[in-house]
Amino acid sequence: MKILIVGSGGREHAIAWKVAQSRLTDKIYCAPGNAGIEDYAECVDIKATDLEKLAEFAEKEQVDLTVIGMDDPLVAGIVDIFEEKGLRIFGPRKNAAIIEGSKAFSKDLMKKYHIPTAGYENFDNPHEAISYLKTSHYPIVLKADGLALGKGVLICKDFKEAREGVKAIMEDKQFGRAGDLLVIEEFMTGQEVSVLAFCDGTNIKTMTSAQDHKRAKDGDQGLNTGGMGTFSPSPFYTKEIHEYCMNTIYKPTIDAMKMEGRDFIGILFFGLMLTEKGPKVLEYNARFGDPETQVVLPRMKNDIVEVFEACIDGKLEDIQLEFEDNAAVCVVLASEGYPEYYEKGFLIHGLENFKNKKGYYVFHAGTKKSPEGIITDGGRVLGITATGINLKEAGENAYEGTRWVDFKNKYMRNDIGKSIE
């Protein structure tokens, strides 16, 4: 098969790496890709949001399967465009991708179908939002309704912070049109767990669990980012919790989407909070997580293209997902200053150290090729992933891997996965 992967981050590099191992794969394209993805794929200079151009390319090159990594093209309706042209594509249609595209939609869906989540209210008027916040309990969570690169969530410790947050999101449009509608949500405490699942519209099969570190600095301090590192599995996600979630969250969500005429085919990402009152949904995403994918796929035994095909054909029940009995940790190497201002264009040294190192992986996120070599080209530059017999060993291996590679203004957290040791 000829396979096209859409996106350019560490998640897409991990997908390309996994797709390259499939017995069904003949050639891989990636649009737009990055310097690391070029090891497995022919990178094509088409933006992930240029939906018509991507469809034209898939038609011209007779691509057999397209896999979407990013949220923006899914929410914009890339699957509908491809299907109209008779092109095979893995991901939810526009009317199903709204589960990530609108937090207000997803909260209302959960309320309607009694899926456990935090209490909330939706607001399209900043003055009404501020009035509501005057009588609220703190801390409290403000969420921009639309897509905001994983950064449209503010946790406010008092009314003053909340009022400033409403202004930033709804009036100053810090996250653009994503802030036209605001979700104000009760603050939940507990362990945060990510569970990715394959869906075929009717059936759902979950992958191994993971935990993400969102904050920029050690000790979960600093600004929210797209993710500074992950580990898998989560020791807090027990068999009992999995069974509870399957019965009260996972299957009910797929069933709810079907009832709404929005059959979900693709990857459904469940962001969970394990509260004292049981697991609750923090958020849904309509695609692979980043950097969760970088620790989940290295542990997956299945041929991923076979699983993609089964989802599209409504035959997921025939697939038995299998994962290695080990652990994985990913440490993100970022540019100093991320997620705010940072410089790029610095030469990366030491990538060759990962060649033929079993259990060690370097997934490129913000990189590109230059005449001098591979250079930094983003806030998150590389994801250093390593496996081990347990989380402690995997973490030690991942941090060993971070020492093999260097670039100017290299920055990372030093506590990924260590809080659970």
Automatic annotation (TrEMBL):
Keywords: ATP-binding, Ligase, Manganese, Metal-binding, Nucleotide-binding, Purine biosynthesis. It is an enzyme of class 6 (ligase). Residues 107-313 form the ATP-grasp domain. Pfam families: GARS_A, GARS_C, GARS_N. Its cofactor is Mn(2+); Mg(2+). Its EC number is 6.3.4.13. Pathway: Purine metabolism; IMP biosynthesis via de novo pathway; N(1)-(5-phospho-D-ribosyl)glycinamide from 5-phospho-alpha-D-ribose 1-diphosphate: step 2/2. Signal peptide: none annotated. One of its GO terms (biological process) is 'de novo' IMP biosynthetic process. The keyword tRNA processing does not apply. InterPro entries: ATP-grasp, ATP_grasp_subdomain_1, PreATP-grasp_dom_sf, PRibGlycinamid_synth_ATP-grasp, PRibGlycinamide_synth, PRibGlycinamide_synth_C-dom, PRibGlycinamide_synth_C_sf, PRibGlycinamide_synth_CS. Belongs to the GARS family. This is Phosphoribosylamine--glycine ligase. It comes from Anaerocolumna aminovalerica.
